[in-house]
Specification:
Distance between the termini: 21 Å
CATH topology of the largest domain: Rossmann fold
CATH superfamily of the largest domain: Aspartate/ornithine carbamoyltransferase
Largest sheet: 5 strands, parallel
Helix content: 25-40%
Length: 351
């Protein structure tokens, strides 16, 4: 973007408003008055994550997604053990978590930082009636970044509005899980050699699966063809399908995985989430909808990769674990460099 002015102060003010770095300053004498200068500022559309909240994958451009993945790769190859020294992350988990909570804690500590927080809501002052807003305003006094999981959709956005420090959404209800999506993209990129033009199947609870929702939106940047495999009652929410249609992304909805398995480069499996069902009878009806075993591989591409955000509760038979196609444990491990990258970026330690 080019902006012309005769007053340098204009650009100082504008730079503060837009938060754009001034990339180049060009002086050119005008022919009419040699004592006046025309300042031409080129404001570079630079990628900067310092102080930024990570709330939804929709907040990322394709360029930004690829940038985070590139930083993740660099950190994985050559981690700086003191990069986050003297920085503190607050881990506020109002819902159960194993991989996300532990990988964030590990990511922070492996780069020299520290963590505080809680792993269940009943040990916080929320139980005494404190509002989420007040909890966030209090916690930001003790830390440099907040990582939060909450059962209510929109809770992460509310926390970001309350906080003056970066907030990272570690999952808000059935809505979004952006850091899981970034590690999923990183895993696919590593395993398939790229992200463009892949055939990706999503299987399981697509109605409530926040990991599926986020990943589908992210893959729409890379011209993926998507296959949504679920019982009709747990199908992909209509508004996500409409969004994909508007972006001209091709997708298919089926109930039987074997109808599309031979087309897939990636199969992303999710569990049927008991905690999202208001009716226990409905959960019992669908909990055994899918039970994948080695018969899947006999009806798939030789190099198909099987992913899962975990935990699994029976939808993948352990007999698949030892096959080269099953990458869900490596996928979980990729959470470390990706979350290290995000922490370093929002804390301004990497630009």
């Amino acid at each position: 973007m080019f902006i012309k002015s005769e007053q340098s102060e204009d650009f100082t003010k504008l730079g503060k408003i837009l938060d754009f770095p001034v990339f180049r300053l060009i002086f050119s004498r005008t022919t009419k008055n040699l004592n006046r200068y025309e300042f031409v500022f080129f404001l570079m559309d630079n990628i900067s994550f310092k102080g930024r909240d990570i709330i939804s994958i929709r907040d990322f451009s394709k360029k930004e997604l690829l940038y985070v993945l590139s930083i993740s790769k660099k950190i994985e190859k050559n981690p700086d053990l003191n990069l986050l020294k003297n920085k503190i992350a607050s881990l506020l988990f109002f819902e159960p978590s194993t991989r996300t909570r532990l990988s964030f804690s590990s990511a922070m500590q492996r780069l020299g930082g520290n963590t505080i927080g809680f792993a269940q809501s009943d040990v916080s002052s929320i139980k005494k009636g404190e509002t989420l807003w007040d909890t966030i305003k209090m916690v930001e006094q003790y830390s440099d970044v907040i990582i939060m999981r909450h059962p209510l959709e929109g809770a992460a956005r509310l926390a970001a509005e309350a906080a003056s420090i970066p907030v990272i959404n570690a999952g808000d209800g059935s809505n979004q899980h952006p850091t899981q999506t970034l590690l999923d993209l990183y895993t696919i990129q590593k395993e398939k050699g790229g992200l463009e033009n892949l055939n990706v199947g999503f299987l399981g609870d697509l109605k409530y699966g926040r990991t599926v929702h986020s990943l589908a939106i992210a893959l729409s940047h890379f011209n993926a063809k998507m296959f949504f495999i679920s019982p009709k009652a747990l199908s992909m929410p209509k508004h996500y399908l409409e969004e994909l249609s508007q972006k001209k992304i091709k997708f298919t909805e089926v109930e039987n995985v074997f109808k599309v398995s031979k087309e897939l480069d990636v199969l992303y499996v999710t569990r049927i989430q008991k905690e999202r069902f208001a009716d226990a009878i409905e959960y019992e009806k669908y909990k055994n909808s899918y039970r994948l075993n080695k018969s899947l591989l006999a009806n798939s591409k030789k190099d198909i990769v099987i992913m899962h955000p975990l935990p699994r509760v029976g939808e993948i038979n352990p007999e698949l674990d030892e096959t080269p196609n099953a990458i869900y444990f490596k996928q979980a491990g990729n959470g470390i460099p990706v979350r290290q990258a995000l922490l370093a970026l929002v804390l301004g330690k990497i630009k």
